[in-house]
Amino acid sequence: MSSYLAPNWVDRNLLNPLATSLGMASTLAVRTRRTGRTQTLPVNVFDHDGREYLVSVRGESQWVRNLRAAGTCELRRRGATRTLSVHEVPAGERAPIVEAYRRRWASQVSRFFRALPDPADHPVFVLRAA
């Protein structure tokens, strides 16, 4: 299933820039699959069972598609930049990661999971040093 929740004006223009400028979130930088430009957006890096993950709370977003195509990304936070390779977690293996992520970031993400409750609708990527 391919589901996507588009960000509204407040998220795009107020909350996302605020989260990154205050250091509340990391910035994901990934090359776009069509133009090769760099797309940036705030993300919560999730530490779970000794690994780092990115979870798409909005579903099949453009950054998800770009990350699949690129296979690598940069994560920026408080002046530090890390270059990482990514591996997508198969849909059937996402549930425990998504549920733990949901509990950890509940105050920020619960609205997305009410709209898309199935863990399979939330792409998950394992991050590894490139």
From TrEMBL:
Protein name: Deazaflavin-dependent oxidoreductase (Nitroreductase family)
Gene3D superfamilies per the UniProt record, alphabetical: Electron Transport, Fmn-binding Protein, Chain A
Cross-referenced NCBIfam families: hi_GC_TIGR00026
Domain of life: Bacteria
InterPro entries: F420H2_quin_Rdtase, Split_barrel_FMN-bd
GO function terms (MF aspect): oxidoreductase activity
Family annotation (Pfam families): F420H2_quin_red
Native source organism of the sequence: Actinophytocola xinjiangensis
